[in-house]
Amino acid sequence: MTSNRDIEKLFDKWNPNKIKAGDRVQVSNGRNYPARVVGLDIDIKNQKVYAHLRLTDNTKGYAIKVDVADCYPFTGHYPSHHKGE
Hints:
By secondary structure, the chain is mainly beta.
């Protein structure tokens, strides 16, 4: 059985971009698209952390469960509805 401390170390190792639930991300896995991370799961057998996504566009055909290593923090800015931009 793996201890909680070991699981945390593996989580940090397999999550190189330090993605957390609630983060807006840009997914780059052969296709590029924006999404929000709604949850994370660690898969010790396959040595991966998976991100469960909510797509910002309701476009079909995009993966909603991806390797978290394919997610990058979203650095763009959404247009502000307060400033009329």
